[in-house]
Each structure stands twice: as C-alpha cells, then as structure tokens.
Write a structure and sequence with these properties.
CATH architecture of the largest domain: 3-Layer(aba) Sandwich
CATH superfamily of the largest domain: P-loop containing nucleotide triphosphate hydrolases
Number of strands: 7
Helix content: 40-55%
Shape: elongated
Largest sheet: 5 strands, parallel
Mean pLDDT: 85
Radius of gyration: 27 Å
Length: 311
C-alpha cells in the first residue's frame, strides 16, 4: 500500500498544493499579529485554523467602517484572545465595538420607549445637513466631539441651546448616527417623554433598569432639556442621580431652548413646590455646567418654514 508521501510525489499537482500550503503557513507565522501573539504566549499551542482566523479577522477590522461592510465569516465578530483566571489562554470569536453598539441600541430600544424621537431627527447626518453661517460653529463642535471621542477618556459633553426649530435636535441626531457608526454605545432620549415614562414605570416596573441605562451609556444625549413639566421628584430623584453618576466620567449632550440661567429658573420652579427651590436647582446645575461646552444654535425656524412650504 502506498504511503501519502508516495502519492504526493507521484502527483505533481498534489506536490504543488502541499508546497503552497507550506508557504502559506510560513507566511502566517511571520505575520506581525501572529508573531506578537506567540511571543506573548510562548507555551501555548493554538490551533492553526484559529490562527488564520485571528490574523484575517483582525486585518479586516482595521479598515472596517461598520457592520454593513463587515467581511468576516461571523459579521460583527473577530477572533480574540481570552485570558480568564484559572484557565489557559484561548482563541474565540468576540463581538467588535460595532456589534456591541448595535446590540446595545437594540436592547435599549426595548427598554426605553422615549428614545424614539422623530425618525427624521434620528436619520440626520452631518453630510446632508445644511451648514449655514448661523449654526456652523455648533455643527463643527458636534463633529469635533464625535471625531475625538475616546471611551474612558472623553468626559466633557456639549450644551446646544437656541430658539425653537433652529436644528438643535437634528445636530444631536447626527451625532447619534456618527457615534454609532464608530462603534460607540450612544443613547438619545426625549426628556419630557422619558420623565413621564419613568413615572409610569413606578407601577409597571423596570424603573431601575431604565435609570441604569442612562447612567452607564458611553454617550447620553438628553433632547429638549427644560421642556419637561418638572417636579421635585423628577429633579431630585431622577435627573440629579443620573447626572451625578455621569459627571467627571461620561459625557452628556444636551439640547435646550433655554439658556443656563433660564434652565436654573425652570428647575427651581417645580410644579409641586410652593416656592422656588434654587438650592436644589443649583445642585443639578453643578452636575451640568462644569462638564459641557456651550454652543448657541441660531438661524431661522426650520420647522415653521417647512410647514409654509408644505402648505
């Protein structure tokens, strides 16, 4: 009976195939990703098929721009090294930042209904946005934030304020899109609806989960701050604790029709308190003002103009 070696040598095509496989394996071990991995874990014997996957998936991830263009066998996943106490290092598929962001958005959409701001706002992009002179500085600040954001490093947010209909929410929506494309977990909620939802969840359940989502998301966008019907409870037990958990750690983006002094007055005049409570309002403002850059958004009322055109 002929050995495998005899069969290979008797068939030039097989011999060429084996030589090609040998060269491919040698190239694999020379690749910087693999050499670094083996240098770090010299005593581990990783499966060669997993080494190929480790190299190829990590190469494709370097130029990836989102889940839509992912070329990996398991979209949104790449081969990584897992080091767990009590276990030997091993290779396994793990979700990338884009996949984590997608999973987070899907989870929070089922948890927090008030994040469903109008579709045209969530679909806003910086590419299609009109960059007129009245709001160009605010748009630049928003783009700069997205480009420079680093998880665990960026702690300052933005306070976008201006009159009705000038496009503050559209800028925030474009930030949501851009950050999500970059694999950042970001949550945009419409504040008036969110506070009503929180109040309702006292009876229906899930309040703590909702609050925790806002406390821990990498970038939180609070849309239309100051438009809510404020009560002492929503100010002191909802907004206050959320912002307390985030300040100096995680950035928060705000859109508002109110200046800082107007927002202070709004927070002080809770509808269920007999007289203004500027002390508690100041506590909330101390969790906002020192941790944001302020951008006034000017220009025409775009919502009113759109209605006039449609009519």
């Amino acid at each position: 009976m002929k050995s495998l070696s005899d069969v290979i040598h008797a068939n030039p095509a097989w011999e060429r195939l084996m030589e090609k496989a040998k060269q491919s394996e040698e190239a694999l071990y020379r690749h910087e990703l693999i050499s670094e991995l083996l240098d770090k874990f010299p005593d581990e014997k990783f499966d060669i098929s997993q080494l190929y996957e480790y190299r190829d998936t990590n190469i494709s991830c370097k130029t990836c721009r989102g889940l839509e263009s992912c070329s990996n066998f398991f979209p949104g996943h790449r081969m990584t090294v897992v080091e767990e106490k009590g276990f030997r290092p091993h290779l396994t598929y793990s979700p990338c930042d884009y996949q984590k962001s997608h999973a987070y958005q899907r989870k929070t959409k089922s948890l927090i209904k008030s994040q469903f701001v109008p579709e045209h706002i969530l679909n806003s992009t910086f590419e299609t946005m009109e960059k007129d002179a009245y709001r160009i500085e605010a748009i630049k600040a928003a783009i700069t934030f997205c480009l420079n954001f680093e998880r665990g490093e960026t702690t300052r947010g933005l306070y976008l304020f201006g009159q009705f209909g000038v496009g503050k929410s559209a800028i925030a929506g474009a930030m949501t899109q851009e950050l999500a494309k970059r694999g950042v977990d970001v949550l945009m909620v419409y504040v008036p609806d969110f506070l009503m939802e929180i109040k309702a969840s006292i009876e229906t359940g899930g309040m703590e989960q909702k609050l925790e989502a806002l406390k821990t998301v990498s970038v939180l966008i609070l849309d239309d701050m100051g438009a809510e019907a404020i009560t002492a409870w929503t100010r002191d037990e909802v907004l206050g604790p959320i912002l307390q958990s985030r300040m100096e750690k995680l950035p928060t983006i705000y859109t508002s029709n109110l200046t800082l002094s107007e927002l202070t007055d709004h927070l002080a005049n809770a509808k269920n308190e007999r007289q203004p409570n500027y002390r508690n309002a100041a506590r909330v403002m101390e969790r906002i003002e020192p941790f944001v850059d302020f951008c006034e958004v000017k220009g025409r009322n775009r919502r009113r103009n759109q209605k006039q055109v449609s009519n």
